[in-house]
């Protein structure tokens, strides 16, 4: 049996991509990445393999502008299959480039493959990371900037400089060994300790730190810090000693500008804050402290991330205690701050028209999913899996997107096999794929049964965060929704024993991953896929497979042919 991709569809898709990158004056960005393991970096001062890109950890910046076409030729020089996903990049009409197990065959060791995508109608701060086999715990992540086109003003004065700050907790251990602990037991493995890294560097003054992060600024100038939580499990509170933060953007949305002393950033989230160097010439602490943790303000505590803000010309070393933030156990502070982050309705972003011209004040919801993230044990003393509505996702050998295109999913998954509104009973393991109504509004209610902060991400979309709450979500909870100016983002936190509600307009057909951003949860099964299907074969509605499409699983021995 041969599989056929019509030549006309491939040509039409290529033409659409060309039009998208020329009519809107997008540039072409060509990148070549060599991905390797390096044991000499020792970010936590222990011997462990670190995933590098072109010898760098973190990886190189992708610095793009709205509507640019990005081509990344990835050479896999590590010893296991590899993919990269582009956290927050929506891949408009093109889930073929999303870089997760449900959309792409992996790049095998010793091989290379080129991702090609357009940052269509987006601006903002994002990051990329390896999506398979727990590899994010080994590094391979890096920043993405999508800048405004020159014809669309940024809603704040041009800062003196732009800094990327990737912060996250990091295992002091070989990521492959941690992976083995999770899958081979015991049921509650004693996982290794964590260190909070800033741009891949350990905490300042920590006795074991070899290199720490610092930024040099000029007195009186204002700087943009793009802060991303690239960590594995810890939300953190971010602050800079004696300086206030002006929140201006999150994950592609300009926000109502809000001055804060500190900012909670949850796993997978990105923010832009403006910092003005308005203090005396000196050095100042930059701090990231984990939420729901008893970590003190002692810089020698590995899980307390500490860097330095240095004033140009300063001869005064940092002094005093590390500045304290809100209580790490104060969830009321965190949720109230989250509710105060609102969409700037009047600012332009990727398009000249104001962000608020597209809003949720009068939408009609066509679907509601109520999804509970939790854990479930496989038998007495067995492995503890992460679940969605008590289903732990099992990754098939064949990517869902390929199976969907070539065989309507037959032999790989069954659409809507599991409930999206209630528990599916005892622990079940399977391929969880839910149907989303194309160009319908989805109300997505995410609940958290556990005692830690969860974090959820939806590929392919920015969603409107309309509500947070503690306790059980009910239909009456809708009366508390903010339908006037909810912020649009792609990753949202869910507080312990709480719920979060978002609205998503499903105008981007494809196969889209919905997952916990906490790496252990994702790796152990807390994910599903949302299939948004448009039956119209016109590639203007959804791109055809790329010409360099990799085949695997049940399609491994098949060959694409072009139709004539």
UniProtKB/TrEMBL annotation:
PANTHER family, alphabetized: MONOCOPPER OXIDASE-LIKE PROTEIN SKU5 (PTHR11709:SF409), MULTI-COPPER OXIDASE (PTHR11709)
Q: Which GO terms describe its cellular component?
A: plasma membrane
By what name is this protein known? Monocopper oxidase-like protein SKU5
Q: Does the keyword Glycoprotein apply?
A: yes
Which stretch is the leader sequence? 1-26
Q: Which organism is it from?
A: Linum tenue
Cite the SUPFAM superfamilies for this sequence: Cupredoxins (SSF49503)
Q: Which InterPro entries match?
A: Cu-oxidase-like_N (IPR011707), Cu-oxidase_2nd (IPR001117), Cu-oxidase_C (IPR011706), Cu-oxidase_fam (IPR045087), Cupredoxin (IPR008972)
Keyword terms, alphabetized: Glycoprotein, Signal
Q: Which domain of life is it from?
A: Eukaryota
State the Pfam families in the record: Cu-oxidase, Cu-oxidase_2, Cu-oxidase_3
Q: Which residues form the Plastocyanin-like domain?
A: 43-149, 165-314, 409-535
Which Gene3D superfamilies would you find in this protein's record? Cupredoxins - blue copper proteins
The Gene Ontology terms for molecular function here are: copper ion binding; oxidoreductase activity
Residues annotated as transmembrane: none
The UniProt family comment states: Belongs to the multicopper oxidase family.
